[in-house]
Each structure stands twice: as C-alpha cells, then as structure tokens.
Amino acid sequence: MIYLDNAATTLKKPESVIDAVVSALRTMGNSSRGTHESSLATSRTVFETRMKIAEFFGARGPENVAFTMNSTEALNIAIRGLVREGDHVITTEMEHNSVLRPLYHLLKDKVISLSILKADKNGVIDPADISGLIRPNTRMLVTTHSSNLTGNMVDIAEVAEIAHENGLIYIVDASQTAGCKPIDVEKMGIDVLCFTGHKGLLGPQGTGGLVIGSRIAEAEEGSGSYLRPFKMGGTGVQSYSKLQPSELPTRLEAGTLNGHGIAGLDAALDFINEVGIDAIDKKEQSLMNRFLEGVRTIEGVTVYGDFGNPRTAIVSLNIWDWDSGQVSDILSMDYDIATRPGAHCAPLMHKALGTVSQGAVRFSFSYFNTEEEIDFAVKAVRDIAEDR
Amino acid sequence: MIYLDNAATTLKKPESVIDAVVSALRTMGNSSRGTHESSLATSRTVFETRMKIAEFFGARGPENVAFTMNSTEALNIAIRGLVREGDHVITTEMEHNSVLRPLYHLLKDKVISLSILKADKNGVIDPADISGLIRPNTRMLVTTHSSNLTGNMVDIAEVAEIAHENGLIYIVDASQTAGCKPIDVEKMGIDVLCFTGHKGLLGPQGTGGLVIGSRIAEAEEGSGSYLRPFKMGGTGVQSYSKLQPSELPTRLEAGTLNGHGIAGLDAALDFINEVGIDAIDKKEQSLMNRFLEGVRTIEGVTVYGDFGNPRTAIVSLNIWDWDSGQVSDILSMDYDIATRPGAHCAPLMHKALGTVSQGAVRFSFSYFNTEEEIDFAVKAVRDIAEDR
User: Fold this and answer.
1) Chain A neighbours among B 188-217 (CB < 8 Å)?
2) What residues of B are in contact with residue A236 (Cβ under 8 Å)?
3) What's the ipTM?
4) Which CATH architecture group holds A15-273?
5) pTM for the whole thing?
C-alpha cells in the first residue's frame, strides 16, 4: 500500500518508537504511583518526554507540558478552561471541528459570543482582518497553525502579536504542524499550544498534550488567565487535597497517563531531533511539490488552497465533478493508494472552497514517503481523470 | 523484581497484547477517518473491541461502549454529563479521588449538594445505610465496586436495587474489578460502568471507557437521564453538524482514539475470555489468601479491611508504627519487591482506617504472580517486622 493519509495519522513510525513501546509494555509500572523501580522508571520516562516536548516547542520548563489523549482533548481543556461567561471569542473558517465544536457548544450554552474570521476562496485567512472583529469583551483567539484540508498555514507569530496588542489569550491548534514545522511558544507569543503525538510527531495514538506559555502558566488562581482543570481525579500526589492540585502539570492531568504511548513519543522525539525538523520539512515539501507539479496540469483536476504561501505537506483535489469518496475508493481499490475523501471535519473550509457536497480527496505526505510513490500516485490521478 | 503493585497497573501483560500493539503500530491508520484498508482495518479493530467489551460487561450492544484514556476520564464524563444544577449526590468513603474530586469540584461550584456514606472501621459500607441519606432532590449515586486500598467490595447489585427503587442514577467505578470480577450492567442494574484497560483487563495504558446501561443509552436529549458530551471535536462522521453528534458512542468520543492501545485491549480480552474470568479470580484469590495467612499472624503486622467479605486481590498492611513509605522502600531496595505505600488517592478510607499519617503498604496480586513470589514476600514482611 502507498499510504498518503499522513494528515490523519502517520502510518509508518520509526522502528525505535515500536521498540520503546514494546519495552514499556514489558517493564512499565504506573507513573507517580509508587516508589519501586518500575514505577520510578515510568515517572522518569514521562518526565524526560515532558522535558523534550518543552524544549521542542520552546516552553519555559517541563511543568508547562501536560499530556492528553489527543489534540482534541487538549483543545477542550484549553478553550473551556480559559473562557469566562460573557467572553467574546474569535476563531477562523480554517478550523477543524476540534476547535469549532467546543466553541459552538459554548455559544449554544450562552457562555460566549463568537466571531469567525472569513477565509478567501483559496481557504486562507488574512490576520489583518482580525482587528475588525475585536469587541470590548473579546478575550480569546483560537486558530489552527495549518489547515488539515489545504495545508495552508496561519502566521501564528503575526496573529500572536495582534492578540497581545489587544490583550487576548491566543490558543493554537498545532495538530498538523507539530513535528514538521518549527514552533516556539515563548518566542512566538503563544499562550497555549495543542498538539497530537500520532501525526507529524511520529508517535503512537493516544498521545498529545498542551504546551503552556509562561503568561498562562504563571497566572494565579482566580485571575482571568488561570487555566482551570478540566478532568479531576487521582494525581498520585497531594491525595488529601479535596480539589485537583493547582500545580502544573498536575492541574491538567488526572488518572493514569498513557505511559506506554508516552514512551513511544519519547523515542519519536529523539528520531525527529536526530534527523532534524528542517530536514523533515524539506523532504515533505519536496514530495508535496513533486505531486503538485504532477497533478495540477492534468485536465479535470482541481487543486485547492494557496500554493504561494507556507504550507504543510497536503494536496487536496477533485477530479471533474466526481464524488471525492468515489475517487478515493478507486485509488484504494485499483491502485492501493490510501487517501482521504469527504469533509475532513472542516465544514467551514468546504464552504469557503465550494466543495461542501463534493468533498475533496486529500493526499498528505510524510518523511517516509518516496518519490516513486509520488510518481505512482500522480500517474493514478492522471489515469482516473482520463478514463471518463 | 517481584511485582505486587497490580492494583496500580498490571506490569505483566499477555504476550498477545504486546504482539497486537506492535502489529497495530506497523499497520494502523486512523479509525473512522478514511476508506482505505489501513483505516478500515482500524475501524474494524475498534468495533470488535467495542463488541467484546459490550459482551464482557453485559451491555446491550457495542454502541453502549465509549472509549476514554482511563477510568478517571470515564468517571468525569459520567458524573459531569449526568448531574444537573441543584442535584443531591450520594457517594461513599470507600472512593478514590477519581470519584471524590469531580464531586468536590461540583460541590464547590454549588452545582450539587453531596452526602458521603460512612465506612466502618474496616473500611466497609453497608448499602442499607444509603436510604437514610436520600433526599427529595437526590438524583445520583456513585460507588466503587472495590476499594483500591483494602480490596473490599461493594455489592453493586444490591446498591443498584436501592438506587432504582428511589429513582436514582447509579454510576460504578470498576477500576479495581474490571477483568477479575464478573460484571453485567443490565442484569445488575448499573447505569454507567467506568473501567480502565491497564489493570485487571491486562491491556495497555491509555485505554478505558464507559459501559452505558440501557436506561441511560435510551434517554432522549433534554431528558434527565441524557448523558451529555464532555469533550467535543472531530468524529469522522457528520462533519457538518455544528454540535457533537448525539449518537452513541460518538457523543462521548472526540478526536483520534488510542487505536494502538485498543488493539492491545482487544487481545487482552481474548486472553481473559480464553482463561476465563472465574479462573483468573480464583487464582488471584488463592494468592491473596496465601499472603494474608502468611502475614496476619506476624507480630507487629496490622492488616486492613474486612476479610470475611468478597474482595479483590489486595492486602494492605502496616508494620508496627513505621511509615509506610519507609517499609515500601525497604521491600523495594532490600528484597526487590514492588508495592505501593502512602495514601493511594483514597483520603476518606485512611480516615476510616485511622491511617492518615502512616499510610499503608499495599500488596496487590495478579494472575501472573506465583506462589513462590508470595512466599518470598511473606518472608520479607516477617524479616522486616522482626528486625526492630
């Protein structure tokens, strides 16, 4: 199989990730839940991974990293733990449902009011438009770092500047960029970065988390920037405290962590640091461009997005007016190429692009794909388009 | 190492669990996120595991099983998704912080009022005492199935009867019993069962979930028994619905599931079904009794709990008036025996048992422990107690 669905999950993981998970499954106790060697070793692995994540994303320290099951959970924690009743929130049409749905629920429950920044016909937003949406009670800005449909990126450093000039909290969804685009929360001015471990970070499913910028991390309980806990439960420390302890990262973690998955993520970070994020990005961009150059001139093929701007390694397209699900099925069944069709949990992007009913076939590339695979995929698209 | 901390996490997993996780790490796409083979195969694995969990716990169907990161998350979803403002909730002193803290937070936020059923000096509750706590606005009852400190069980079928006679919703924390004690949510009248995958179920960390009884599953949106969503986000289906879809289990799951972990849980369920839960329970009970008989007569040893009643394979003890952390350290360093000291996230149990400052050393047994390990542990306890 030629796997080109890496924006959903990277299928190929470094062998060291698999080895680390196997070793963890044979030796791991419960992190922070005992003083014997297998529990301590687990705590050490979790702590080391926190350190590496903190360093990787430019956080002040390991305590500013909290682990979750996935990026969606991280976004729920960040959004719902920071809004206050009566807040106005700004987001964009580029968002995934993991941002939109928590906000729509808060809107329905009359906790917040909401403005959604329009994207142009290529699905791109202009950060300069944000200022026009700011109201006196605007308190939070949530944007993706990159669209999971077109791959187009948001200049998060620019957005952060606008956010801070206006006293807004800025939450970034890095589901599509963590592991393949450099991010530094402190330098870029991000308040909370939400990431997943199983995509660009090349780790196991069931991993992800929040990287908390210093402004939020240092906020005192009761203050407007205090990130309230979302789940409460056992923490292995301060058992006699009735409430969830306020220290980070304990405040945001409850119950047994996915130690086995985190061990894999730890190894994945080592792999990425060894290869270098720039080398990974460069290879992915080269594969994406090779694919794009191959398909964009094929008669009947429409590609979506802005190809003049920074982007992650995604090309979404349609062939003629054919249903994207049907095209993806042909790619899978006749060519053994894995892509993703349909709506991609990004409803407003399909409205911007005019592909609500057709959906789009998404090709997304990873460091482990090869030029031969790309060439085969281009040929497949050409064959299908010509065969009408 | 002799690992006797199985109530925190089972260290030894069946080899088939490790094989299944490795295979998943090599082949798995993203469940419900594509139509190609690696995505479909993932969806199938997740669905099959849902089926097996449903069957294992007597649920009506696979849609009544929702996956979470752990039992704590499941309890947060169940408790916070079912309470309404002004409700009175009853729980017990036997609970873990995963039950107590979500309730204390709701109490602090003035959403609920709370009564806590007293345990006797052995840390056991009498279900008959529940009736005395019921008020006109009582709507929910939350109990553990078994104390994580003493191993003493709650007769959940009896509690369920009291709950339903009084129109209460009954939530059960099965963290200590799932996988080693038979549970049938429909026959026993449980409304929501919360389980973890990495303890008695012998699966990987990062797995767990809710098994939803038919009364809650069938409740219509807006009705008092409707379990509201806790996390919102991408679901791979109904992308154009602004709100989290109301169908189960989608309503309670958002973002990418821990497919790699669930594949391991799937294999773990096969192992348990093959060996038989009764055989597992019998062996664990036999190991526990062997240990108990060995240590209870040693001068200076105090064991905690009621040993005349049904229990999970846990023996918690102290030696003289020594700090439990110190004893656990000696066991680890001098004997290479892994136990757990301290407060065990069960603050009210320590109050009931009178061990708030001393804590207790917990020995917890698994199907994979051996009689030789037990005998060695008994000898270690004797040596330590005599060496004063």
Assistant:
1) 196, 198, 204-207
2) 345
3) 0.96
4) 3-Layer(aba) Sandwich (3.40)
5) 0.97
